[in-house]
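Entry:
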Amino acid sequence: MKRLTRAELQALNRAKVLAAARDEFAERGFREAKVDAIADRAGLTRGAVYSNFPGKRALYFSVLADLAEREAAPGGTPGTETAETSGTPGAKTPGAATAGEALAAFARAWVSRLPLATDDPARLGMDLMPEVLADQRVRQPFAQLMKLNAIVLGLALERLDGHASARRRVRVAETALTTLYGASQMADAAPGFAEPFDIVAACEGLADLDLGDRWDLPHLPFVPLARPAGEPWSPPPAVDALRGEPAPLARDGVVAVLGLHRLGAVEEAVRAAPPGDEVTAVLVTGDPGELGPLARLTLADLRACLRRALPAPAWPCLRVVHDEEGAVAAAAGVTAVSDGTEVAVRVRSGRVVARADGYGACHAAASAEL
């Protein structure tokens, strides 16, 4: 029998721990689950669990992220799911033509995962929000992850509006996500209280609200200037977390390396980039063991609903890459990362032609005159 390499053994043990933790959390809930019980289920030692995950909450986030990514990874590309590929009886290929239709489809995908009054109300993820609330170190990154999700959804809604409309849709997206996360909380606390069809109708109606949402560059204490550069650009392979496909980092555009406290800044790059340029947000964190899985979970939840709601042409020219190991950041010249990192580079013809650092770097790199 072939002897496993160290990396293969570590991957096998990690998979065992995740499977055991999933069963433990499902049966006992996060609060009552015990690391020793998870180790026993996995047939490993307590030390083996902690060698793969820094703590019980990190393990919980990792279990939820693993499940969410599996749900968000059916065959095909965005906008091509059918009843056979989506796993939803009667599902059709997304064909939303308006922002209202897209919000309704997005909401339907969201509420379809919630328990009904006649179901066992316990969900594996019902302890997520209490754990987010329990620690400011988690709340701030989670708030920025929500901002990133709203930016992605809002940009998609704007594309459905067409180029003739200058209306910003990010606030509508924020309101829709607030409604849906609230529906999830109520489904856990008071199953059957809210009628799913009413939630869908409410989200659809948000498209007609005028929230006075116009794009203005946020106030910055200073606006850094992008520095000319002439460096080779050789990024490592990476996956676009929104589409589940290789991220085209070699294309012309802006690559923004953003810590989990600065994710909202990516909109500055999207709004300032020349037409046709792609913008890639590279997510980094000073706590990859716990906050990395939280980021993967949050983006996977968004992706699962986007796939069932929006046709491929409506997806924004924005890519998101999880860079827990810092490999893409290092290729961009960022050797040390934190949750406050904001560095952006402009790529042209396989070279970094401009770079900027600090608050405002996304806008500076995207708007640099070359």
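The longest strand covers residues 253-259.
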